[in-house]
Structure formats: C-alpha cells, structure tokens
C-alpha cells in the first residue's frame, strides 16, 4: 500500500491479502467459502470440462478461472448440507443469478421430470388432460394472470372457483347484501336520517352559493352518488356527496364561461349543463384511472400542496360568503366584483361596510355562532356522551330560521330567501348526456379543472376510506382501484342528471358511523330520503334565508383553514422550508390572483418535485467498518470508515429506469474523481487513477431494469473494460428474475467477465479482485 495514501485503512485488514495467486485449492476454499451455497456463484466442474469463458477467451476473461473452483466434489453425504456456522440456512443458487450452467440445468430438469411423469399417471393425470383439452369460454379468455394463479390456488385448497367469486370482489353489494340482516337496519336508518338532516341543507348551500347552479342540482348529488357507491364501493361506512372544494371549482368554470360571453349570470340552464359536464368529466377521469389501476395517484400530490390549496380554498370561500352575509349581493353585482380576486372582494367589502344590511348580518352571524358553539360542545361531550352525535344541529338551525322568516316576514324586510326550488329545465331528473359533440366547447374549457376535482376528490375519499376501513364485512377488502371505479361511475351517472361532483367526505362519513351506520344500506337510505325531499319538501324551502346557507358554508371554510396552523408549526419545527414555501406560494397566488392560477402553480411545483426526486440517482460509495466485513455509506460516515486500496465500491439502491439513469454516468464519474457525489465538479481530481482498478457494484436494490437502464449500464461497463478496469457485481438477483435475464441478454454478464464476476457479497468481490490482481502479476 503506497505511503501517504489518503484512503488507506487506519487498521489494515487482511481480507484482500488472505488469498494470493499461489494459494492452493484448500487455502482458497478456506479463505473464501466453505459452503457450497456460496461457492455456487463460481460454477466450474472439473468433470464438466472447461467453462465457456475459458473455451472462448476474451479481454473480459478472468485469468485464474481454473483456480477458483470452490464446489465440493466429494460430499460427505448426499443432498444439501445444512452444517456450518449459520445452519440451518436456505439453499443458495448454484451459479450466478441462480441456477447452474445450461447443461447442468437441463440435466437437472430431466432428472426431476422422470419421477414427475411416473407419478402423474392415473385419474389425476386424465383429469388434467381433460381440463386442458376443454375449449375455453369467454370468461376463461378474460382471466388475467393473477386470476389464473388464484384458480390454481382455489383448486389446490378445494375452493370452488367460479365467476361469482370474482364478481363479488368487483361488486361488493353481492357480499354485504347476502350477509345483511335486519339488526343493522335501525342503526343504518338513524345514521342516514342524521346525515340527511345535517348535510342536505349543506348541499343546497354548496349549489347556490359556491357552484352558482340551481339548488336542486346539489340535492341530485345526494341521490345518485351514494346509491351507486353503495353498490360498487369498498368502504361500507363512507358517505359520498358534494364537497366545498369541488363545488367552488365548478363555480370557477361557470364564471369563466360567463366572462367569455357564453351566457349570463342568470342563465340557470347553461349553468346546470356545465355542472353536469364537469361532474361527468371528473367521473370519466376517475373511472379511467381505476380501470388502468392507477390507485397510487393519491400519493402524487404532496401534503404541503394539499394543505396549502385546501387552506386557500377555505380563505376564498370565507371571503365569498362575506358578501351575502352582509347583504351586499346586489351591490356586488352592480360593481361586477363577483368574478374578481379575493383581495378585490375584500377591498369592496371594507369600502361598503356602511351599506351592509343589519338584519341580514344578524341572521348570518347568529346562525354561524350557534353552529360553531354546537360543534364545539359536541366535540367535547361526544367521548363521554356518544348520543350527542345524533343531534342534527344544522338541520334545526335551518328549520328554525325558515320558520322565523315565514312568521316575521323577514323576506319583506330585505333578507334574501332561497325562493322557489326547481330544476332549470322545469322538470326534475332531466337526463342529459354530458359528452355530446355540442358540448365540446365546454368540455375543453372544463378539462383541467375537472382533472383537479377528480384528483382532490379521490384524495379526500382515499383518506376517508383508509380512516374508516371496511371492518363491517370481513370479505370486503379496501381497494384504491375499486374506489376509483365506484366514484367514477357514480359521478358519470350524476353528471347525466347535472348533479354536483360527489366524492367521499371524512366528516359526514364519521357522523354516519358514529350514529349507527354499519353498512352501505345507510347510503341507500340517504339517497331515498333525499329523493323524498325533492319530491315533497321543495315548496317548504321557499323561506329558507340565504344568509343562513352562507353561514353553513362559512363553517365549512373554517374547518378547511383550522388545520393549517398545526401544519405550519410542524414544518417550522423541522425546518421544512421547501414545504412552507410551497404552501404560501399557493395560498398567496390564490388569494391575490385566482383559484385557477394557484391550482396551476401548485400542480406544476408538485409534479416538478416528483420528477426531480424520480430522476436523481441515489448511488453511494461504500466504505468498510474497520475490523469487520460490513460496509456502509461512506458519505454518511466519512470519519469511521476505511476505503479499500485499488477498489471503488458503488451501491445502487434502486431500480434502474429511463427516469434515473440520465445522470448515472456523471455521478459515477464524480465518485471516481472525488470519492463523493457532493463535490463540485470544478475541483481537480482527488483520487488517483489506480484507486479505481476494481469497480464493485452492489446491486441488491436493483429490483427493476428497463431497456434504457440496461443500455446505460452496458455502456458504463464497456467503458470501464476498455480502460482496463475490472468489474464485479455483488448480490445480484436470480437468473430467473427479469433483472437477471436482462443482464444476460444485454451482454453485461459476458462483458463484465462472465459469471465468475457475479458474487454473493462485497467481501467475496474484494477477495476475487485480490486474486485476479495477484494472478496478473504471476502471468506478467
């Protein structure tokens, strides 16, 4: 070892010096491996003749190939040996990437096939032949590979494999309807009645104040969406319905159409059509994602993005509701600030406070205070007195306000009321297919907003479903992909009747479960109650004060904002400045400009973070813990690790794909030059050229290798071999794996030096590199 070497071990290890070119077979065997399991990586049999690498020598052929035969030719007993320090242990592969040479594998397959053939005779064999010769039905042709495996498992365990079993998985109603009994009905009915009392008035508020569509379209979302989800959804306790964020985004699309001159502020029919188009588009996107098995998409948007965007939506909603709560609606229409930013609306509000309607503000403020006080009381009392959850405080506030308005004629005193509630077409439940060619103009305008509605809706539904679980029925397993399909179908059906987009909400689902709802029957009952409300109760909603509806929305806005301080304090505590920057960027862009701009900036920054994280290689240079055979990340522990003279040990802890191999060569070059990937490339070379005579790749974490990754890796190995650098791979997947097959087919195996250069661990690679260096010295 050269004097003054900055990478010399503090305590020189005898690991690489334990084997020399002149070592005998016994000494090599004792120094490297006494186990046939480990020796299997170096597959050479004297009886089998010379290996392929020795028969056709190339520049990559190991010089001491015949000296490294570690296989036990004279076993003490037949069968696998389980003796040794670490016995018992599983049987290791018999060569690089698992399995011996082709001839050995073929011989083994033939020897194993003979007893299988003799034992497979009789009725079992005849049954198998009849089953294979039977013509395939359409159901059999549609079976996936996973279904075929499931069929074999079912037959092995005596379970009947039929189409109903798979249909029950994709249509959970076939499971819970079969197990449903009347003891569940009381709890489901009470829960549905409680949810209807609390959230049906909320649906009216969302439609009228946020989405700017007829109030009945909000009720439609509680008719179709819960019903469809009860049939297809995998979370029995979840209640699907309209949400504040989705309703506000629908309102932005409608406002955009009005600003472009495609209709007026009072064109209820156009607004309802656009609402149906947005709901249908969001449903179609979610459905396609479910069919394509994209249930992991709820992880695409980061928590800071969601918190920033939801808080921004809460702030926008709160500012929007101040105008009707102060009785400034008509004045705002004259000033045309309805489509302005939140800052412009706040400037308008403060400039016209002296013109606020006193009675309107009193009704709104009283309703808001009563609901917030009841909410806090229920939160504190519910752990000790669960029955308080049954009190429909919002429903009572709405009924009392409507009754007082009728008795004291507040409508004649200037308080705005809901008025006649009817469908824009004049007839309830009018069917309109949202994807007609005549709607293409609105479809193009609503595409991006519908995508965000679908993403936010699925994320909230996923959080609610994971929190609630599916414990009511053991056979119903929660599945993100089936959730996507159920929500997509529900919104497409709702969009055909121009309903608001509906997704799962944790708040109302928690109310449903805490008040006795145990099965999807509560969703079906809720759908029926809403249908009865539309059929018989709409005339009684005439005197419902709009300030009360605005106060209900303000409560929702408060709930959207109240979690933001907790997240901000947490990110401040851990110094997560990037996350805080993203949150405030979205919040400020939404408040000062528009919801659309805040949405676009947030999605762009989130996707940029995802792409940056996915495309950055995470290769590490490894160093040895002195006195051991353990290796760790040298960049994380530079002071307590030692480097091996003449060797660069590189760990690749992730799959190699087109996304993360773009900078792989550059990162490896930095490791060669500086011993760390954190050094600036302007520095001169810090590691000598002879410090990289041997490159050892630890690829245990490479669980995937696509074509682009294999091509880049092949170019790297080829470049090293042309420079005279020896290449070793440790902890390689088996030959039967996709990674193993790709390594062989791409020529990387042969280029690196054959199967001899693919070993069990880094220690063996170090020993082998020392052996080959000594062998070259003898030959030379």
TrEMBL record:
PROSITE patterns referenced in this protein's UniProt entry, alphabetically: STAS (PS50801)
A single cellular component GO annotation: membrane
Domain of life, source organism: Eukaryota
InterPro entries attached to this UniProt entry: SLC26A/SulP_dom, SLC26A/SulP_fam, STAS_dom, STAS_dom_sf
Low complexity bias spans: 22-35, 105-121
Transmembrane segments: 189-207, 219-239, 270-292, 304-323, 356-374, 441-464, 484-503, 524-543, 580-608
Coiled coil: none
Basic and acidic residues composition-biased segments: 69-81
Classification via CDD domains: STAS_SulP_like_sulfate_transporter
Name of the protein described by the UniProt record: Sulfate transporter family-domain-containing protein
Annotated organism of origin: Apiosordaria backusii
């Amino acid at each position: 070892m050269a004097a003054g070497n900055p990478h010399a071990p503090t305590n020189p290890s005898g690991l690489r010096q334990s084997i020399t070119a002149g070592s005998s077979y016994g000494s090599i065997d004792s120094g490297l491996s006494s186990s046939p399991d480990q020796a299997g990586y170096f597959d050479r049999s004297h009886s089998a003749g010379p290996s392929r690498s020795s028969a056709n020598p190339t520049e990559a052929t190991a010089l001491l190939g015949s000296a490294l035969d570690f296989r036990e030719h004279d076993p003490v007993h037949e069968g696998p040996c389980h003796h040794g320090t670490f016995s018992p242990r599983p049987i290791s592969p018999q060569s690089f990437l698992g399995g011996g040479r082709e001839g050995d594998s073929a011989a083994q397959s033939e020897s194993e096939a003979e007893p299988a053939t003799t034992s497979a005779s009789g009725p079992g064999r005849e049954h198998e032949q009849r089953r294979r010769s039977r013509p395939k039905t359409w159901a059999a042709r549609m079976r996936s590979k996973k279904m075929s495996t499931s069929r074999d498992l079912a037959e092995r365990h005596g379970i009947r494999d039929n189409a109903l079993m798979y249909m029950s998985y994709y249509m959970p109603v076939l499971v819970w309807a079969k197990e449903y009994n009347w003891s569940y009905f009381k709890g489901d009915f009470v829960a549905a009645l409680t949810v209807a009392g609390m959230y049906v008035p909320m649906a009216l508020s969302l439609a009228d104040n946020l989405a700017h569509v007829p109030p009945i379209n909000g009720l439609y979302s509680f008719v179709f969406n819960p019903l469809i989800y009860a049939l297809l959804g995998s979370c029995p306790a979840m209640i699907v319905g309209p949400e504040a964020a989705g309703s506000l985004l629908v309102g932005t699309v409608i406002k955009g159409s009005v600003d472009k001159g495609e209709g007026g502020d009072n064109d209820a029919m156009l607004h309802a059509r656009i609402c149906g188009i947005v709901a249908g588009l969001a449903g179609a996107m979610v459905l396609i994602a479910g069919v394509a098995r994209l249930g992991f998409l709820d992880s695409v948007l980061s928590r800071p993005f969601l918190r920033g965007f939801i808080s921004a939506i809460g702030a926008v909603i709160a500012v929007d509701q101040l105008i009707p709560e102060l009785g400034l609606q008509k004045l705002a229409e004259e000033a045309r600030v309805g489509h302005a930013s939140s800052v412009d609306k706040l400037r308008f509000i403060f400039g016209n406070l002296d013109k606020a309607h006193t009675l309107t503000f009193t009704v709104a403020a009283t309703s808001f205070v009563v609901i917030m006080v009841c909410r806090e009381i229920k939160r504190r009392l519910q752990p000790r007195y669960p029955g308080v959850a049954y009190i429909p405080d919002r429903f009572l506030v709405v009924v009392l306000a409507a009754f007082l308005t009728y008795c004291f004629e507040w409508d004649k005193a200037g308080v705005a009321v809901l008025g006649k509630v009817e469908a824009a077409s004049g007839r309830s439940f009018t069917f309109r297919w949202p994807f007609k060619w005549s709607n293409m103009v609105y479809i193009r305008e609503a595409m991006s907003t519908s995508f965000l509605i679908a993403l936010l809706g699925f994320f909230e539904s996923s959080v609610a479903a994971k929190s609630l679980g599916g414990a009511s029925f053991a056979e119903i397993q929660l599945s993100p992909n089936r959730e996507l399909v159920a929500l997509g179908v529900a919104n497409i059906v709702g969009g055909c009747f121009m309903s608001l987009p509906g997704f799962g909400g944790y708040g109302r689902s928690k109310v449903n479960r805490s008040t006795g709802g145990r099965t999807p029957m509560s969703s079906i009952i809720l759908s029926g109650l809403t249908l009865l409300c539309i059929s018989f109760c709409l005339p009684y909603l005439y005197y419902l004060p709009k300030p009360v509806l605005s106060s209900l929305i303000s409560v929702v806005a408060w709930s959207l904002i109240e979690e933001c301080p907790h997240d901000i304090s947490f990110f401040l505590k851990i110094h997560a400045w990037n996350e805080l920057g993203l949150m405030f960027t979205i919040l400020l862009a939404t408040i000062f400009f528009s919801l659309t701009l805040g949405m676009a900036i947030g999605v762009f920054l989130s996707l940029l973070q995802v792409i940056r994280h996915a495309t950055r290689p995470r290769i590490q240079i490894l160093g040895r813990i002195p006195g051991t055979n353990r290796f760790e990340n040298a960049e994380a522990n530079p002071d307590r690790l030692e480097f091996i003279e003449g060797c660069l040990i590189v760990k690749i802890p992730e799959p190699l794909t087109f996304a993360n191999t773009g900078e792989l060569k550059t990162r490896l070059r930095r490791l060669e030059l500086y011993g760390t990937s954190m050094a600036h490339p302007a520095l001169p070379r810090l590691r000598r050229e002879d410090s990289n005579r041997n490159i050892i790749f630890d690829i245990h974490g490479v669980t995937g290798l696509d074509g682009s990754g294999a091509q880049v890796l092949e170019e790297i190995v080829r470049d090293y071999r042309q420079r005279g650098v020896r290449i070793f791979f440790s902890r390689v997947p088996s030959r039967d794996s996709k990674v193993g097959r790709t390594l062989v087919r791409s020529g990387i195996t042969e280029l690196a030096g054959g199967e001899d250069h693919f070993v069990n661990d880094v220690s063996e690679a170090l020993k082998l590199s020392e052996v080959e260096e000594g062998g070259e010295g003898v030959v030379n």
